[in-house]
């Protein structure tokens, strides 16, 4: 439940003044419980089986280090991301927190849509979900007709405040976790009446579970790193990445620069067209590979930004190739160049989108490329942009040459001097 601000402020005060009253869960017979805190103590999870509610009552408490809330925190019942029954919480404003019931088909962004696909029963968000100056609490019930017997496997993940979802919409896009791991709760232990672990001013239960991969700060990625090249999916994504980076990030801007400088310096059109045609082939194959993998894995995952941007880029690339060819024909026949200017603009836009999408792809990829992979691409894009902008210095000369060429052409001069020739021939 989301509280409006004055109410939330009151709730905050009440929580600070009466932590025990806020935190405790009424004791009853048949209750079992266990809790887990990560080794840094930044977040704790408590599960209490409540027979009267026929549910496990989960409470996640996230401390706000230096008043900076985690971007999001997720806990799931399961031993890996695929099919785990997850709840993800984040703060969306003063006193207001969102919790979202999610699932994933694999090591991809968990979505609300997957919950139904994975046949997970609906969860119930508790009104105790809130955020104060010291901590955030995410609380919910997962239905359970009887007390879970013994050890229950869980996964967790969290991301820094720079990755906070931008809205209070429970379906908001999540950016990849910074840290993840596994823990288990021994739900055969009787509940002793203590407050959920991690809440201040009350005796928290000591973490009793083993922190199997815990406090793995800095290890990023959706689930475990996967670089197993004996798996077809891994090979296909690797080839997809290579084709797209070589095509859109390396060759396409070279083709753009050939066009930018070539107009005034050398015979440019055959080189430009040849390079960009090669890019089109790489993009078509790279796109087909990724579609194949995504379809095989999860048909719903088109909600991911990388896939949406990728489709947009694919369509733009095809459109761009046709426009380039058409513009070339029109310039040859009529001397009309404005379509060419538009083509140049679209080319720059496509390159920018490709740089963005390369980063999005690296974030999703279970290969878990190092963060500097994106930085190398940004640096390269910066160099390309600089060289491109310097190329505008040739614009006046280009205009002059084009006028001369037009005059020459209209005067019945040699029609050798077309756009694919250096124009005029005396410029070496
Ligand atoms: C669930 O846990 C919260 C503590 O986070 C508690 O306040 C609430 O009363 C509990 N609900 C049920 C149904 O046990
Ligand atoms: C992490 O935990 C899982 C499940 O408990 C285990 O299979 C895996 O070997 C652990 N990995 C490391 C690096 O400890």
Automatic annotation (TrEMBL):
Comp. bias regions, Low complexity: 208-223
Domain of life: Eukaryota
Matching SMART domains: B561, DoH
Transmembrane segments: 235-261, 273-291, 311-331, 338-356, 376-395
Domain Cytochrome b561 stretches: 199-397
InterPro entries, alphabetized: Cellobiose_DH-like_cyt, Cyt_b561/ferric_Rdtase_TM, DOMON_domain
Region span, Disordered: 201-225, 407-428
Compartment list: Membrane
Transferase listed as a keyword: no
Alphabetical keyword list: Electron transport, Membrane, Signal, Transmembrane, Transmembrane helix, Transport
Biased composition (Basic and acidic residues): 419-428
Identification of the protein by name: CBD9-like protein
Protein's organism: Tilletiopsis washingtonensis
């Amino acid at each position: 439940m989301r509280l409006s601000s004055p109410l939330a402020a009151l709730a905050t005060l009440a929580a600070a003044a009466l932590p025990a009253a806020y935190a405790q869960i009424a004791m009853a017979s048949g209750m079992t419980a266990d809790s887990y805190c990560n080794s840094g103590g930044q977040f704790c999870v408590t599960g209490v089986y409540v027979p009267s509610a026929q549910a496990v009552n989960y409470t996640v408490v996230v401390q706000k280090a230096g008043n900076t809330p985690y971007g999001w925190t997720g806990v799931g019942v399961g031993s890996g991301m695929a099919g785990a029954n997850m709840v993800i919480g984040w703060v969306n404003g003063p006193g207001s927190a969102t919790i979202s019931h999610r699932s994933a088909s694999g090591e991809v962004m968990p979505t609300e849509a997957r919950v139904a696909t994975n046949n997970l029963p609906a969860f119930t968000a508790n009104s105790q979900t809130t955020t104060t100056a010291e901590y955030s609490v995410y609380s919910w019930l997962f239905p359970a007709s009887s007390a879970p017997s013994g050890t229950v496997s869980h996964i967790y993940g969290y991301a820094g405040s720079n990755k906070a979802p931008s809205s209070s919409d429970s379906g908001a896009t999540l950016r990849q976790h910074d840290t993840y791991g596994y823990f288990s709760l021994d739900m055969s232990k009787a509940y002793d009446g203590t407050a959920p672990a991690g809440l201040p001013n009350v005796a928290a239960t000591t973490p009793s579970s083993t922190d199997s991969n815990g406090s793995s700060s800095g290890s990023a990625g959706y689930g475990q790193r996967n670089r197993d090249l004996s798996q077809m999916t891994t090979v296909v994504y690797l080839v997809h990445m290579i084709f797209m980076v070589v095509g859109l990030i390396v060759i396409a801007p070279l083709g753009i620069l050939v066009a930018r400088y070539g107009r005034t310096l050398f015979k440019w059109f055959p080189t430009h067209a040849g390079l960009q045609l090669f890019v089109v082939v790489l993009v078509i194959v790279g796109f087909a590979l990724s579609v194949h993998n995504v379809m095989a894995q999860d048909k719903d995952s088109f909600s991911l930004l990388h896939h949406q941007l990728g489709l947009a880029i694919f369509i733009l690339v095809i459109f761009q190739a046709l426009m380039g060819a058409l513009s070339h024909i029109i310039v040859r026949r009529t001397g009309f160049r404005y379509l060419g200017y538009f083509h140049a603009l679209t080319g720059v836009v496509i390159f920018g989108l490709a740089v963005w999408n390369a980063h999005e792809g690296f974030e999703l990829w279970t290969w878990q490329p190092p963060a500097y992979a994106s930085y190398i691409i940004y640096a390269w894009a910066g160099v390309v942009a600089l060289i491109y902008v310097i190329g505008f210095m040739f614009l006046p000369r280009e205009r002059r040459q084009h006028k001369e060429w037009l005059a020459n052409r209209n005067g019945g001069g040699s029609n050798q001097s077309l756009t694919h020739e250096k124009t005029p021939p005396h410029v070496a």
